[in-house]
Amino acid sequence: MKQNQITAEILCVGTELLMGNTVNTNAAAIARGLAEIGLNLYHQTVVGDNPERLREALELALSRADVVITTGGLGPTYDDLTKETIAQVLGRRLVPHEESQRWVAEYFRRIGRTPCPNNQKQAMMPEEAVVFQNHNGTAPGCAVAGTGRWAGKQVVMLPGPPRECEPMLREQVLPYLQAGSDTRLVSRCLYFYGIGESDLAHRLDRLMRESTNPTVAPYCKPGEVMLRVTARVAEGQSAGALLDPVVEEIRREAGEWLYGINVGNLQTALVHLLLAKELTIATAESCTGGLVAQRITSVPGASSVFEWGVVTYSCETKRKLLGVSQKTLDTYGAVSPQTAMAMARRARVKSGADIGISVTGNAGPEPSEGKPVGLVYVGLDCDRCTTAQELHIQTMAHDGREYIREMAASRALHLALETARQMVK
Amino acid sequence: MKQNQITAEILCVGTELLMGNTVNTNAAAIARGLAEIGLNLYHQTVVGDNPERLREALELALSRADVVITTGGLGPTYDDLTKETIAQVLGRRLVPHEESQRWVAEYFRRIGRTPCPNNQKQAMMPEEAVVFQNHNGTAPGCAVAGTGRWAGKQVVMLPGPPRECEPMLREQVLPYLQAGSDTRLVSRCLYFYGIGESDLAHRLDRLMRESTNPTVAPYCKPGEVMLRVTARVAEGQSAGALLDPVVEEIRREAGEWLYGINVGNLQTALVHLLLAKELTIATAESCTGGLVAQRITSVPGASSVFEWGVVTYSCETKRKLLGVSQKTLDTYGAVSPQTAMAMARRARVKSGADIGISVTGNAGPEPSEGKPVGLVYVGLDCDRCTTAQELHIQTMAHDGREYIREMAASRALHLALETARQMVK
Q1: Residue B16 at interface with chain A, using a CB cutoff of 8 Å
Q2: Are A14 and A49 in contact (CB under 8 A)?
Q3: Which has the higher per-residue pLDDT, B369 or B389?
Q4: What rounded mean pLDDT belongs to chain A?
Q5: Closest by Cβ to B161, choosing from A30, A45, A220
Q6: Tens-digit pLDDT profile for residues A6-49
Q7: Which of A85, A389, B68, B373 could form a disulfide linkage to B61, CB 3.0–4.6 angstroms apart?
Q8: In chain A, how long is the greatest CA-to-CA distance?
Q9: Whether pLDDT at A424 is above 90
């Protein structure tokens, strides 16, 4: 069967998902992986740790899809019943799996803990299963073919904790599922800053509506939109020939907001540009409280471009640690373009970096020094300019504080990216 | 009908969820809200922007549940077809909704943009719907009662973007659904640090297995476990009488790892304790790159306890900005308990805070200065002690760097919390 005729379905098992304390990141990770290897995905379902509802949901999924991928319920506790239920539906017995028994023992030895009696339940596997080793926990995964009514169908079981599920998916399950594919999906991800999703969709309406290979799909997060352009490429066919014309058309329509292709996010684009140009950057943060530094240093390799950042919440700290003058603070206040520029300049001068960026503002929840929630200044200083931008970040969301901090940090990173583009060391 | 006999179901619509570029945070937020008001939830489903599959999934959901809550597909673009499809299934026409037309116009005025022609499509509503205003975007939500085959059933439609969906849910939909309830759910959340989920579950096995009111359910994230103890309380009944004995039993079995009840997370517990004791804290971070400061300052009110933090990535910056001695760095290296302690001490002395905490280590992806990935030292300094803890953070996950940073930051926050508990100003 051709890969693009195989339909998969995701079935996540876990009462914690239905209680809402856990966000289902596994479903997204699996969906992304399936798209990459060209399997179709039309449904994704969550049920609790309830054998009867799991059985019903599994049978519905098996009736619609060739491969059902489950997560969760492989743990050591009494309510982890996924493996037992699925084996029963597929007509497979559970048998002790020696290699898994050794893995579990070895895992506990490595982390220096003693296995509980329950852990050996995790080493029971459906007969004839392909077993996937768990490098980050105790529950192995597996792929099991159905029998009888479900002959020709297959269930892949993954553990629930994302840091066990995702590596197992990437390292073992996707290669296992991909074996035998005759097409592949190739994507380019275009990152935009400063334009809303509906505005972008309006500009690209015809393209998004009519283009089928490649497809063009938007994804947004606060302050940013990403367009994923995806081509289905046959053996020997060139992905570029399909992708290039569409990317060029998007560039013509919305190039002014495009900040990078396949760059991942603002901080990665910035760090890679700084590395390429051998430039360095320093941060001075007030209301973002370290978020700009944290986003920059989340990028591997950041240590070559970033070595200096301060979090200066109070006026006193802005003065003492950073050296912003008392006069600037008294005359204009902590939340002002003048203070933002002074913070950026002092960060650059004290650190010896090429670029200094700063954020000062009121992230809420209460107005402060007469400045409304959402008023933020982003400052930048380099050898050719000192600048500050004023933001009014409107939100009524319950996580307004985090939203304001994220939006302000994004603006600072984008300002640094645009500035670094025009600089030469 | 009693609230605890009402069954709800979540149906999320969006091809972006099936492509995996968007994590379904809405489903978790809705599930949490439904649990709080005591509705039962057994299924949650995702389908793409495909009218036929949406219709099928909706009919299945309506056959199982009294209330179906949908997210997504209310946007302005051509593939946003949720409202049209649902109205059709429920036997309702779409009619222009004057108030929504005014909201859309007003929203665009406020953000200073011009509506596209598509935006007026968003102001069409099913007849007799209860409409929910969107304070964070252009798509109103609504609740619509079914007719004919689906009489007595109800569909609630929410917009897809989380920052539109979640506030609408909290502020409008939950109060709307709760009207007329005769029981409520009351939860206590117990937060543990330093014990694994399976170990905790093993200690509390009988309790978790047998207790039905309250229920006891575990949720884990890296390095932490939270137990939610939830009682269903009738009018006039005391929640404490149900919850207190179970919480006491948990305390007896696992009290040594319990760091707080209803505290939310480590940083909130820390900030609230520091506020209560009028203590202050300062940070000096190397491999966590601002994450500790960012987590502390994410808590409203943090400005009273935290005003000073530095990110010192290189040895030079540790020396110049912080004042760690060249001798310490030369003799022991940047990743050493001595440097961690010196960083914490210098942070405390320079800032004048009561507690200084530090993190230095190798978050990867490559070994550095001969120190393996995952070796981290957390330092703390206060007027009665200076200490450093050595961590070996094992991970083979593809996001290993972020995992190591999160685990190291959590340990620093927990160390500060434990220290602050024993301090008096």
Answers
A1: yes
A2: yes
A3: B389
A4: 90
A5: A220
A6: 999 999 999 889 988 788 999 999 998 898 787 899 999 999 98
A7: B68
A8: 82
A9: no
Nearest of A249, A255, A33, A198 to residue B79 by alpha carbon: A198
Grouping H, G, I as helix, E, B as strand and the rest as coil, residue A367 is coil
Average pLDDT over residues A411-415: 97
Instruction: List pLDDT tens digits, range A339-376.
Output: 999 999 999 999 999 999 999 999 988 888 888 899 99
Number of neighbours of residue A288 by Cβ within 10 angstroms: 31
Give the H/E segment covering residue B357.
strand B355-361
Picking from B21, B220, B402, the nearest residue to A228 by CB comes out as B21
Q: Burial of A145 by CB count in 10 Å (0-12 exposed, 13-18 middle, 19+ buried)?
A: middle
Strands (E), B141-277: 141-145, 154-158, 183-193, 215-221, 224-234, 258-261
Res B398 pLDDT > 70? no
Report how far residue A139's alpha carbon sits from residue A134's, in angstroms, rounded to the nearest whole number: 6
| Tokens standing for residue A343 | 């913070």
Q: What is the DSSP string of B67-112?
A: EEEEES--SSSTT--HHHHHHHHHT--EEE-HHHHHHHHHHHHHHT
The Cα–Cα gap between A9 and B147 comes to 32
Residues of B in contact with A37 (CB under 8 A): none
Tokens of A12: 């996540």
**Chain B touched by A118 (CB under 8 Å):** yes
Q: In the structure, what pLDDT confidence band is assigned to residue B114 with cuts at 50, 70 and 90? A: confident
Contact A43 B47 (CB under 8 A): yes
**pTM, two decimal places:** 0.78
Question: What pLDDT does B3 receive?
Answer: 54
In terms of Cα–Cα distance, which of B31, B36, B38 is closest to B4? B38
Confidence bin at B79 (pLDDT 50/70/90): low
DSSP summary character for residue A314: S
In total, the C-beta contacts within 8 angstroms joining chain A to chain B are: 304
Tell me how far CA of residue B283 lies from CA of A311, A401, B307, B327, in angstroms: 9, 21, 9, 22
The CA distance from A286 to A363, in Å, is: 10
Which tokens hold the place of B241? 């009488």
Question: Which residue of chain A comes nearest to B299, CA vs CA?
Answer: A401
Share of chain A above pLDDT 90, in %: 64
Q: Do the chains contact at A28 and B47, CB–CB below 8 Å?
A: no
